[in-house]
Amino acid sequence: MKSIFKIYRRYVATACLLVAFVVCINLAVWAGYACGLMRKQEEAENGGMPVRMGKYHSVAADLTQDGNTYVLGETGEAVLRESNCTFLLLLDGAGNVVFDWQKPDGFPDRFSAGQIGAFSKWYLMDYPVAVWRYGEEGLLVFGYPKDSMVRYNPVWRKEELQGMLQYIGIFVQFNIILVLALAFFFGYQLYRSLKPVGEGIDALSEGKVVLLREKGVTQELRRKMNQTSRLLERQQKELARRDTARTEWISGVSHDIRTPLSLIVGYADEIASDGEQKQDVRQKAEGIRTQSFVIKKLVEDLNLTSKLTYRVQPLRKQDYVPAIWLRSTVSGMINSGEIPESCEVELQTEPVLEQQHMTGDVQLLTRALQNLLGNSVRHNPGGCRIVLAAKEAEEGFCFCVRDSGKGIPQKVREILQDEDTIVYREKEQGQADRGPHVMGLFVVKQIVCAHGGSLWFEEEGRQVWVSVRNQREEGWKQE
């Protein structure tokens, strides 16, 4: 957070410097221009011109003559007070003060022509004043408090005024160009500082190692990114070691369990085939043999899902025809007894699948189909009707396993539809209970994903759809 605040503080400081720089440039240009005008004004032949305002006209209109005296009406006094005037003098043609309003002490009753010319341009005894013509020869002198304003009466020649308007337009354009140039310059500097940071974030998102030079305004941010990169690198190495150890342990257990399991199957088969044994003993031996095959299949599924999860199971691609592959798989399961006589199997395939050639790992796909068909058989011990339907799909084909049984439970479907995790145990009401068994279907999902396809359910889990893409042109990388 400090690094971000540092960037923000640097940005604010840069903006302030930019404003100050532009202001200084403006002041310098205007000062130079004003000095040039002052020099021209001093050289001008004509003198200053009085400033005229509407208030002076209203006061002059309200000042009336009554014989030899002058009277200022209430309106005129109100205008003087609102205008913050200190005094008002009326001079006749000879410079005599013929009327005054709040004339300060020490003011003469008569002013010479030179004095009138001086204070009309500058000050009257340090009072800033303004003059206004009254009648044919009279002159109104409006006085204001000392140090309240600065008197400067510029004289503009017509060509100078026209030139000044042109200069203003040029100056505005110059300011716009200057501000844009500075903004682009400082923005580019900030972009250069942030560009490595953005590239580092992209590299981190791709799992690459990041090592940025720790300098500039983003120094602290770069240091944090380097620390994050080193931390992620250590975590990836630890995860890789842990995954390798897990995979090797599962493979070792799978290998070690085969020998005793083979002995169990052999002894159970021998007992079940021994006619001298009692009927119940042979039945128990047959049950041991059947459950041993179930254990063997579970171990194989566990080993296979481990390999698929950790990307150590490459696709052994070969060409196949979908319709022929489906028929051979179903017939093989029927001949081997995996699909009992109590289950009726119907195969429905589109004619186009008889000629379509696909590329993929036939052994893995066969395992997925066996798991789906075996799931229908296992969860319907009293027998059911199984329909295996297949049709053409974009870049491949899809098939559906539908049975007349109770379907796949909602909880199992929710677990399989989770894209990130597989849950085998869950806690309910503070007790740790066994969750639904999803190993076989999860292996199906992994195999399907390995072939670029997907798995989904319809009709409350009684239909399981699988899509498979052709792997002829592009290889598989499990994400």
What's this model, at a glance?
By secondary structure, the protein is an alpha+beta fold.
Structural overview:
With 479 residues, this protein is of the alpha+beta class. It contains 11 helices and 16 strands. The protein has helices at residues 2-43, 54-62, 74-82, 113-121, 158-205, 219-273, 279-309, 322-335, 362-378, 410-417, 439-450; strands at residues 63-66, 69-72, 87-91, 97-101, 123-124, 127-134, 138-143, 318-320, 344-349, 358-360, 385-393, 396-403, 425-428, 431-434, 455-458, 463-469. A 5-stranded antiparallel sheet has the order 4-3-7-6-5. Helix 2 (54-62) packs antiparallel against helix 3. It is rod-shaped, with a radius of gyration of 50 Å.
Mean of residue pLDDT values: 78
The main pleated sheet reads as: 5 strands, antiparallel
Percentage of residues in DSSP E strands? 15-25%
Helix content: 40-55%
Task: Using the alpha-carbon principal axes, give the shape.
Answer: rod-shaped
Radius of gyration: 50 Å
* Strand tally: 16
